Each structure stands twice: as C-alpha cells, then as structure tokens.
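Collaborator request log, item 7. Partner lab (contact: R.S.) asked for a structural prediction of RNA helicase to inform their binding assays.
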Amino acid sequence: MPKIAALHGISNIYSKHKPPGHATPRKRAHKREHAWVDVSDDDLEVKSSKKLSSKGTNKSDHGPRKKARLSAPPGPSFKESLHQQRKQLPIYSGKDAVVDMIRENDVTVLIGETGSGKTTQVPQYLLEAGLSGSGMIAITQPRKVAATSLASRVASEQSTSVGSLVGYSVRFDEACSSDTRIKYVTDGMLVRELLGDPLLSRYSVVIVDEAHERTLRTDLLLANLKTLLRTRNAPTSAVREGAKGKGKGKGKERASEKLNPLKVVIMSATLEAEKFSKFFGGAQVVYVKGRQHPVTIYHTKTSQPDYVDAAFRTFFQIHTDRPSGDVLIFLPGQEDIESLEKSIQLYANQLPKDASGVLVCPMYAALPPSQQTKIFSPTPAGMRKCILATNIAETSITIPGVKYVIDTGKCKEKRYLAKHTGTGFDTLLTRDITQSSAVQRAGRAGREGKGFCFRLYTEEAFNALPITAEPEILRCTLTSSVLQLRCLSQNLEELDLMDTPEESSIAFALIALVLLGALDNRRSLTPLGRKMAAFPLEPPLARALLAAPELGCTSEVLAIVSVLSSSSSLFVNSHDARDAAADARRKFRHPSGDHLTILNVVRAYEDVAGAESKAGRRDWCRKMFLNERCLAEAVNIRAQLRDVCERQQIDWRVGVGDSQGAESAILRAMVQGLVQNTAFLQPDGSYKQVMGHTILKIHPSSSLVDKKVPAIIYDELVYTTHIYARGVSAIPRNFIAEVPLLKQRTR
Ligand SMILES: Nc1ncnc2c1ncn2[C@@H]1O[C@H](COP(=O)(O)OP(=O)(O)OP(=O)(O)O)[C@@H](O)[C@H]1O
Ligand SMILES: [Mg+2]
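Returned to partner:
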C-alpha cells in the first residue's frame, strides 16, 4: 500500500489542455464527416419491474421518484432558486429563437454545448409555448438512468412530482398518467410503442436526444420518424384523397384522424449536424452558444498503460490536494470498477483521521436501478463521493456535486463476431474512446460550477482518437430489431436508414428468426413470431417461453427466463471464500447443468422468502453466495412476464413440478429457444457448434465445466483466451433433431 505522500509523485503528469480545433459547436459540426457513435451497454438489460400506477405514485424505492417526492411540493425558496437556475442557462437567452425555429419547421437539429440546457429546458419551452397542442412531448434517451433522472429534475422544475405533468417510460418501469405532457423515454421504448401505435399519434413532438450515440434503436426510430412525418404532416387534401381511396366511405373521419402534425427535434452536444439535416431533407440547424461553467481539461504528459492504477493515484491526488467536490471516474467495465472500488476503499480506510472520508459508488448497466440511482443522493457532510462508472454516465445526466472527472479513455464496445463463429454473437471489447465521448465525459463536470477533467492520456493521443465510432447498426446483432420491424410490416433492408447494415448481418438475423419459427421459409412473419415480439425478451428466450405451454412447463421456464433476463449474475464469486462458495453452489447443482440449477435456486429462494423476514432472506443469500439483487429482480421480471402471458392467453401457472419427465420437458423448451446455441462433443473433448464451425469450451463458471456430454445448449458465448460457452446444460442429441430445420445436421 503506497503512502499518500508517494502520490504526489504524479502531480506533474498532467499538462493543461489546449483547446481543440473545434472550439465552438458550429465549427465542430462543420468539421465532422462521420456520424458520432458510442456503445450503449444499457438498453438490452432487463432491470427491475415496477407496477404502473395511474398517477405515478409508485411506492417503489426508485431513486428519481424518491427525489421527486422529496422535492414536491417544494417550498417557495427552492422553487425560486430553480427558477433562477433555469434563467441562467445559456439556452435561456435563445429561448424565443429556438421555439420559433421549431414552430416553423417540421424537423430541427439543435446543437449546444454539454450543460447548456437542451434536455431539461427545450421540452418545457415547447410546452409553455403551446407547441405540443393536446399531445405529448417525448424526449428519447439512449439510457434508462438518464430518462428517469431527467424526468425527476424537470418535474422539480415544474413543481410537480414525477408521473404527473412530467413522466418517464423505460423498459419494465414507467411513471406516467393521463396528465403527462412531457415524457422522457428510452429510444427502445418508443420503437416498441410503434407496435401498438404505428403513427405515434399520442405525441405532437418527438425529441431525439443524444442522437450522436447512434444506437441501433435511435437509427430505427429516425427511419420511422422520417416516414411518419410524411404521413402525419401531409397536406390535408392529400390525406383526404388518400383516405378516400383506401377507406371505403370513411374518408372524412380518416382525414381528421390524420390531421395530427408531428414535430421532430434532433439534439446533442457532439453531433454531425449536416448528416442529420441531410437525412431529413435539409432540416434547419440551430446552435446554442456557450456553456454556463468552464471545464479545465488536463492531459497526462506520458501515456498511462495501467489506467486503473493511474485513476487510483489521480483520485487520491484530488482527494488530498483539491477543494471539496465529488469525483466521477470513467472506466471501461464492471471488472475494472470492482477492482478500483476495492483499492480505493482499502486506501481510504487508512487515511488519517482528520482527512475527509470517501464514499465509493459504482455505476454500471448490470447494477439494478435502485443501486444506480444512489449516485444522485447527496454526499454526506465530511465525505467526498467517488463514482466509478462505465459510459452509462457519459451523456445527458447531471450528477449533483460532481466537480472532477477522471477519464481513462477506455470503453467497452459491443461487436458482432460473425466471421469467427459461424452463427455470430455480440461481445464486448475494450477499446479507446472517441473524441466525441471524451467531450461528453468532460461535460459531466462543470454543471453546477467550475469543473475539472483529468484525461489519463496525452493530448497527442486525444488528437489521434477517432472523432466518431461506427453506428451500432453496423456492428451488432439485428435479430430482435428485424423481428420488431416485421411486426410493423417493415423490412430492415428496405428501410430508409442513415447507415445500412451489411447484408450478411441482416442474413444472420433472418436465419435466426427462421430457426426460431418467427419467420417462415418465405421470411414472412408467423403468428408465433408476433407472439414472441409481444414479450420484452430477446427472441431466443421468448421462443423458449412460448415452447413451454405445450410441454406443460410454463411456470418453470418462466422462472429460468426471468433469472436469465436479470441484469446481474445469480452466483456471487468470492476470491476469499472460494471453497465455501463452491460448497454452497453444490447444494443447488443439477446434474443436467446450469438451467435446472437456476430453477433449484429459485425454488429454494421462494421457500426462504415465504418463511423468512427480509433480513433472514438476505442472510440466507449471503450464506449461499447468491446475489439477492438478481433474485429480487427476477421476481419482478417474472411478474411482468406473467402479465404478458395473460394477455396472450397463456396460463403461467401450469408446471411440471417434480413429475417424471420434468427435466426433459424443461430442457426441450430451452432447446427451442437456444437452437442456435447448440454444440456437439468432439473427440478431443471440446465442443463444435451445430450451426457454425466454432470450437467452444465450457466456461469455468458452469456446473458442467469438467464434464463431457454428447450435446450442450448454452446461453451465450464469451470471448477471452478461448471462445467459452456460458450457462450450459447437457441435452440428448435427439432434442436438437426435434427442431425441424436442424434435423439434417444432426444425422
Ligand atoms: N439534477 C440536477 N441537479 C442540479 N442541476 C441540474 C440537474 N439537472 C440539470 N441541472 C442543471 O441544468 C443544466 C442543464 O442540464 P441539461 O441536462 O438540460 O443540459 P444539456 O444541454 O442537455 O447537457 P448535455 O449535452 O450534457 O446533455 C446543468 O448543467 C445543471 O446546471
Ligand atoms: Mg442533454
């Protein structure tokens, strides 16, 4: 353990940042030729499910709503202070120009520096100016935490609680009511809304925020908005004629139905304005100048290959040398966060008694929302908060108290490894960030006062970073999106997209959907495919669930699928108590492998939950080295899935229990979903994919790690030194043959 004094040794590793060439947003926008993008590691995750309450008075412990309850009804001085804060934002002086521009144009591209007030203010300006008419204003966010925390802030600014005038809707959580006029949503949720309301007719304005991230869902939304604009904003006479042609005498009603114009606003601090403007046929571009508080940027003088160590030293240098203010550290992933959390905590415990304490808060996608929102809680007196985050905290959010940002310059990016694996899979790879990300990260400081950003890379390295990364649609699995689009009678390959994915990735998605039975051989949507899309699950898990009723095991498959959809892992790995953890795990182990092992855990947890208090449950989980968060989250997800089952007229209570043949029924259902994730044993003890050519090993975390069984199914592949299959069960070879399209391959 280094002594604090030794930390001063790095005090000269930084050089102050010379402003980059793109000093103003206008200049920057002209310079860029490629779309901005960054990885979204948030949206596919299923988090806790909370019941919708009609007035948004959800009793959950969700952070933003808790905050809203604290702030509503606010006292007059608090209200006045918020009012003053709003008036001091750079966007305030351009308010009328922004509103006029949006009033006069169907599509507006709005660019303004981080913290200038785009996300919180523009929707309020539009509402106050009456631009939303009787409809709602939707503001999309690539990440859930941004949608929920912004709704909370804007509700406070409007002196109401979240769920009334200002609400949000994210996967498995919603706080809205009939009074809601401003709604923060994830882009994925809005794409999903298209399924029930293809014209998005409830919305008068759709603001696509952080459009530079170019998530897969943002791109799908943009393509749909372009079509929607044509339909909803067509001149009334054209609509009337069109309606007459199709509507068999209902011309008049349809005409008035369609007379519901839509406004679209595209926003970001780091956006390639021309590309977006061109995509929307020459949309107007508005720039909001200036930022409220300066951010001083430092680069290291030399490169720092051990970025975790450099972040550690920089944090303690700030902690010992700099005035109060919380610190936000950007790291690529959960492992780095956990290791840095440990070292910071260890070191902080050894600080002299008179030094201020350190409160470490991790922040990554796999943490449940209630944990994530802890970063927004006020820092206790005499403490400095240190938030360790992935790029989940990179855009959009304001974390009150944060004055210092430490940027390691690394992120994890989702990439589709089709070429290596035959069937293809998404994997997360650590890579350097883009200049756009670096600007966004620095923008998390300086929101309430002066800020400082310490980049753990040199200025030359910054200049050499790519300005943008590839849009997600060009590098990720498209299966779920292709299915959703088919439900809208759309084909991805025919959609007017900003960037078109490679033919091979569309082909892989189509093959997967045909294998799952969601599309038929002519690639048309089947009734089964439509049912699959109704479940907020990845298509393979939706397929497994829909295979269960015929096999009589819906209740069991629901339990397994809910745990697999949870955002954290079920088992706790303990380096310090490895043997005890292995002993505990053995108690649940099922000879067939990990899926029935999960079921054993869920059943044991249900027994404990029925008999024990909350504390007793927690204690049991701790002793069993189980992650209670995962189990509690799975219970919520299961409740949500049961609701969908009911709407689909599936009796979720039907189960096989401990009857003879229970194991084979459950595994048969899982095979139907994991049909692409099947492999046969090779003479050398490795496994070869049935659908591809990849040679796999069973991951060390699996209960089947040392076993040699004729055939396996698995949940996912992870790519480290080898390609490993994780979440593995042994199955008889003939189960695979039951999937019609795989019969030939199994002979
Ligand atoms: N939860 C909050 N607590 C305190 N201040 C806040 C909060 N949310 C927003 N603010 C204030 O409002 C300002 C504008 O925030 P807003 O999110 O609208 O900016 P933005 O232009 O959208 O920034 P970005 O490009 O980073 O998303 C912040 O810089 C901060 O001063
Ligand atoms: Mg914003």
